[in-house]
Each structure stands twice: as structure tokens, then as C-alpha cells.
Amino acid sequence: MNEETKKPHKVFLSGNEAIAHGAAQAGCRVASAYPGTPSTEILENIAKFKDTINCEWAVNEKVAMETAIGASIGGARSLCAMKHVGLNVAMDPLMTFCYVGATGGFVFVSADDPGMHSSQNEQDNRNLAKFARIPILEPSDSQEAYDMTQAAFEISEKFRVPVMIRMTTRTSHSSSLVDLGDFKPAVRDLIPYVKDIKRTIPVPAFAKGQRLAAQERTETMRAAGEASALNRVEKGDSRLGFVTSAVAYQYVKEIFPEFSILKLGWTNPLPRKLVEDFAKGVERLVVVEELDPFLEDQIKAMGIQVVGHETELNMLELNADRLQNLRHELLGDVPAVTPAKPDATLPTRPPTLCAGCGHRSVFYVLHKLGAIVNGDIGCYTLGAFAPLNAMDSTICMGASINVSAGMKKAGVKGRICSVLGDSTFFHSGLTGALSAYYNGTPVTTVVLDNRITAMTGQQDNPGTGRTLTGDPAPVTEIGEVAKAMGYRRVTTVSADDMQELEKTLAEAMDSGEPALVIAHAPCRIAAKLTKEGLCEVDASVCKACGACFRLGCPAMTRGAEIRKGAYQMKIDPTLCSGCKQCRQVCKFGAIKKVR
Amino acid sequence: MKTVNVSLVGVGGQGIILTADMLAKAAALAGYEVKKSEIHGMSQRGGSVTSQVRFGDRVSSPIIQEGRSDILVAFDRLEAVRTAHELAPDGKAVVANVDLVPVTVSSGLQPAVEDLDGRLKAALPNALVVDAMTIAREQVGNERTMNMVLAGALAKLLPLPKECWTEAMHQLLAGRKAKLIPANEKAFELGHASV
Ligand SMILES: Cc1ncc(C[n+]2csc(CCOP(=O)(O)OP(=O)(O)O)c2C)c(N)n1
């Protein structure tokens, strides 16, 4: 625990840290999550309270949610956290647990990513919570994240309902001062477990009643929301009245500080009466929210007039500039903001695979072998881009194996393979691998086994030998898993040995049977191998053929131009990790290992 | 007090986040409301990074509107040019005399900027250029303290008591990192004296 948390004064916390503190303060006993930006730091910070919270990395979000469900049914307060797309994976348990209902308070955090800073899509998960008929709390800063996490547990227990806290990249990753009050993480007693299958086994006979109960519960919760301090009116100039939630509230305060605001913290079920009364007291009602017109559509459906506007606010990340444009449109007393276009003449700094990354050699080889590569989600998705150009599709975590299977079944000719990381394999590659084996689909699956969940910032997983709390854990070998499924063609190669890699991958793809290849190379950041060695180019030997540049290693820079347009390669010694991939690619032996 | 907006820009791995944390803590210690945001994903090394800090009596939005930064601290000259539009017309820029060549340029995928000197002058005519890397390397003896040289220069431009900066640094470098404090303090002082 950090020094400050012991003292009851204001501390500076990110939204994710604040949720962890709120959970600890609320007596949460069990927490589980699978990493995903921007939610990852919630569990990483909960781990600091491991004395009172039994916490872990689950292998995927469904597992995380079901684990928290078990804890709740067992009478404990429990929490799980995920990025927005993680909730898609966890929807199955949620859609029935919302009937069963919580015993110990059950809270899950959905961290949405408006503007797709680090995601493959944009989705407003308030829609999913409404679909499940459960409460949504939407903090607008870290203080509210701390307070609302505690309130969420109370609401969950009071109405026996799972509660969603909706964070966004901005609320998760911005920091502000939080008054922790009398902060005392403590173990809370279990609510005694009582077997009650009418509730916990929703067979049709029971589920029908629960379906009706969920409907009634919505109305009781709505009434509670109307009276809750989480929803409040801030009176101001009544010519305009804003209904707003989450970080959008902060932008409204910034741009329309003088007007009346209905600030909603508990947005589902919508406190209709509050909205109706607020609307009556203002001349024009404006709804400002981030992403979908979630509140707006419901308010319009109540027959309330909402100010329409030209400003397209209902997608991508909201910000004060976009609200200034709204103000320009509605009041005309401020100039419009035209966002500066990125200066196209400046060189960019796009994300790249690190120097020495073992993913690079695999993509280099797959490109050489002319394979169709169905990829997955992780650092290795960068293999899609120049100069590697070695990926054909990426859908969602775990899709790679099944997409290849589908292509094979469709009769697509040529070499086809799937590429996914170790964490992704554990997350949702297992089922696809089994299905392909069972059906005899000749899919070659390449697991890029870097022994870490790298993309999200190096989290542990079943292959790393450590748990969330840094304790030792058993190691699951993916090759052994495949063999246990029945795979006969299971090969482990070092990703640093490109010749062997090429031979193995070609054989696997041409074998006509399901195959699993493990390309092993530890993540150089996680294993602290970033400066393991150093290679150098002998300029008297280098013919400037350009083969090494097709690896796209950030340590390789252009050297002398020895023919028009033909540059020798030079290695930046501050970046080189000594991996030797470029040495293997060089036909002239111009690259030497010097350390 | 009117809210003060500070943007810190540079390249992943340069210590921008720590500098932003220190500024935020110093402002909080001085009794202001503070908000800090990471604008770009941090995890990738070598990518452009922006961190923003806002402090004052009341701060609402966690991010700064375009063209409203009172101070732009650039850890790299190319990034200074890239983000110059974020600075308010009467804002001040502190720019480290550092050029990290983007991989896209070193590998020949994209052309280098021609006349970066001229581009910087045109974009930020009144920028305070600090020889932060030279100071860190030669006077402190540790290149990694470059960020604290810039923090020292930034401190000179902000209405925050110096004790708050010192206390913030001590809080951030508590525990295992405490051995780094003397070098960082030296770098901070040299930066402070440089403007
Ligand atoms: C359903 C879902 N959960 C979480 C994420 C966030 N996420 C993106 S990549 C990744 C991990 C990838 O790890 P691994 O497969 O080991 O590949 P590496 O990054 O190490 O190469 C995660 C957790 C996601 N995109 N989708």
C-alpha cells in the first residue's frame, strides 16, 4: 500500500486507482479481471490490497465475471473489470446472472474507449447494461470513481442486482485529487450462504418468474435513482438546461458553466421524473453524453423536446472543443474551433515491434512463404504493416484459428495459417484449436509464445509462472495442451532461428493436418533483455541489397548510399538488442555480433 | 486564479510521465485543484507522447482545449513543431535541444524534416531552448535526468513555490528510487538556473 493511503487527506489518483481504493474501502473480497486498455490498472492496483482482496488474473473476461459471480453467490462483495470488448466475452454469464441476482455486492467495470485510442472498435456499453436491465453508474472524475464504487456495492446488495460502473479512457487514465475519507480497507464478513435453487438455477420454470421480477426491479430501482444523491441538479441560467453524465459533465462545466445542469451519475434505469421536472424548469433542454444517444433517445421517447443540433457528437471521443462548437451553434457567443490537421510533412512515430522482438522473425518468414495469415490481437498485430506486411485479418481475440478453419472449409487455396499470442491462446484460442482438431480441419496455428501478455503492459498469464500478486504459479505449456487435445503435429521452435522456423512452418502448412507451432522467444521488455547484445554492420561487406530492411527493426538505420537509391544498413547501438535476426537475413555475412 | 494549462510532449521513454506527475503533485501541494491526463497510449516505446496538467481554483475538463496551453514543454524538437498549435498565442514554450530521429526516417520510409531549425523558429518563435541533454550528461553525469532539467526550467515559469517541487520529487522518488534524488535535484537546479 502506498504511504499516502494511510492518511485521511486528499490523494492524487487515476480513475482506475480510485476504483481499486473504492473496492478496498467497500470491503470487496474477491476481484478478477483479464487485462485490456484502459481497464488494466484496476486489478494491478487492487493487487496492492491483496491482504483484504483475493485477486487474480483470469484467462478471459467470462472467467473473470463468473468467478466474481461465484463469490457474490457465496456472500462476498466481488468485482471484475474489463475493457469494453471484454464485456462482449462476458455477456453470456451477465445476461443470466441479472436474473439470479447478487447476494454479496457484485460490481463490474466496463472501461469503454471512445475514439479508439487502443481498441479495434468503439462501443457504448451502456447499451449492454440496459439490455441486461442492470444499474449503470458513470463517474466523471477520480473522486466519483472512488465514491461510486462504494455506492455500487450498496446498490447491488440492496436490489440484489449486478451493477456496472462505466469508465472511459479519459476517466480511467486521468488523475485528480480524491478525498479518501476514513480509508480503512478491511475484510467484510460473508453474507451467510443459503441454498436457494429457485433463484440460482434459472430453468424455465423459475426463469419466467425472474424475468417478471427483473421488470419490477427496474421500476423500484428507477424510484431509488430519482431520489439518489448520485443524480443532482445544479441550478443556473435556465435558458439552457443540460442533461449529462460521465466526463461529458466536466466538458459541459468547462464550456457552459453558467447554465443549469442535471448531472446524472446513476443513468440506468433513467430517473424519468427527475428529467421531466428538470426539463420543465428550463427553456431548452440539451443532452450531452459520450458516444451513443443513450439518454437522449430515452428522453425523446418520453415526449420531451430536446434541442437538436448539427454538431455530430454521438461518436468518437467528446472534448471541450467539440462542445465549444455546440456553443457556437446554439448561442453564437464563441468562435468555432477547427481542429488542426496533423502536419503531413512531419515524419510520424507509429508504434512498432521493439528491436529484437521474436514476433518479427515469424512474420518475415510467413511473408516469405506467401501464406495467408489470419491474425489476432496483441503486439503482433503490428506484423500487418510495412515492411512486414504479413497479416490478412484480425477480428477479435481468439478468432484467428477459426477464421483460418473457415477459409479452409470454403476451399481457399494456398498456404493458410493463424497467428496468435500466448495470452490470446489461453483467452480464447483453446476452443478454436480443439474445434479444428475435432473436425480434422488442416489449420496451422502459430503461437507467438513470448511468455507474457505484452500489449497491455506485461501482465502475467498461465504460461509465465507468476500470478497477479507476483506469487509463483504452475506453468502451462501450450504444446502439452495441444498434445492432450490429440494434435500429432506439435512443434516448438525458437523464433530466433529463422531457418528452422521457415522449415517448420512450411512443413506444417503443407502437411494437410491440424498443426500447432510454438514460436518461442521471451518478450524482451518483460524478460529485461532489451540490451542483451549488439550487432554491427561491416560496411566493407554490406552490398546495400536492402533485405534486412524488410525486417523493419527500429535499430536499423540507413547508412551510406552506395548506388543510387541503395543504402547500406547501419545499426543504432543504443537500440540494438543483439537478437541476430538481421544476421540471418544477410546473404553476405556483413552483420557481426560484437557483444 | 485562472486555470493554468501545461502540455508536455515528447517521445515514449523520455520521462515525460514522471515530469507531469511531479508538476501535478507540486500543484496539489500548493493547494490547487489539479487534473492530469495521458493523451496518447504510453506502452509503445518510441511513439509520440503527450501528457497534460491543469491546475487552478477549479478545474473541470481533464484535457486542454486546442491552442489553449499556457506552457508547452517539448522534450524533442520535432515533437515541439508537431504540437506547436496547442500553445496559446501568449503561451510560452520550453524546448529541449534534443532530436530523436523517428524510426520512419532512420529506416528511410519517410523523409526527414528539412531545416528543423527554421521550422522550430517559425512554429515557436519565442521558445526557450534548453540544452537539457548536455546539462544532464555533462553537468549531472546522468542522461536520464534530462527530464528534471526541463522540470527545473518549467518551475521557473510557474507560480508554484519551489518547496512544493522539492517535496513532490521526494514523494515520487521515495523508497527504492530514493538514491536517485541527489542527481535529480541537481538536474532540477541546473534547469531552474538555465532560464
Ligand atoms: C476481449 C478482449 N480482451 C482484452 C483485450 C485487450 N488486449 C489486446 S491484446 C491483449 C493481449 C495480447 O497478449 P498476447 O496474446 O500474449 O500477445 P502479445 O501482446 O504478448 O504479443 C489484450 C489483453 C482485447 N482486445 N479484447
Describe this structure in words.
The complex is a heterodimer of chains A (about 600) and B (about 200). With about 600 residues, chain A is of the alpha/beta class. In chain A, the strands form six sheets. In chain A, strands 3-2-4-5-7-6-12 form a seven-stranded mixed beta sheet. In chain A, strands 14-15-16-18-17 form a five-stranded parallel beta sheet, with helices on both faces. The longest helix of chain A is centred in the middle third of the chain and has 24 residues, at about 205-225. Chain A is globular, with a radius of gyration of 27 Å. Chain B is an alpha/beta fold and about 200 residues long. Chain B has one domain (about 5-195): Pyruvate-ferredoxin oxidoreductase, PFOR, domain III (Pyruvate-ferredoxin Oxidoreductase, domain 3, 3-Layer(aba) Sandwich). Chain B contains eight helices and six strands, in the order E-H-E-E-E-H-E-H-H-E-H-H-H-H. A six-stranded mixed beta sheet of chain B has the order 2-3-1-4-5-6, with helices on both faces. In chain B, strand 4 (about 70-75), helix 2 and strand 5 form a beta-alpha-beta unit. In chain B, helix 1 (about 15-30) packs parallel to helix 6 (about 145-155) and helix 5 packs across helix 8 (about 180-195). At the A-B interface, strand 8, helix 10, helix 13 and strand 20 of A face helix 1, strand 2, helix 2 and helix 3 of B. Thiamine diphosphate binds near residues 35, 36, 397, 422 and 424 of chain A.
Number of strands of chain B: 6
| Shape call of chain A | globular
What's the CATH topology label of the largest domain in chain A? Rossmann fold
Distance between termini of chain B?
24 Å
Q: Which structural class best describes the helix and strand composition of chain B?
A: alpha/beta
List the strand order in the largest sheet of chain B.
Answer: 2-3-1-4-5-6
Structural domain count of chain A: 4
How would you name the CATH homologous superfamily of chain B? Pyruvate-ferredoxin oxidoreductase, PFOR, domain III
CATH architecture of the largest domain in chain A: 3-Layer(aba) Sandwich
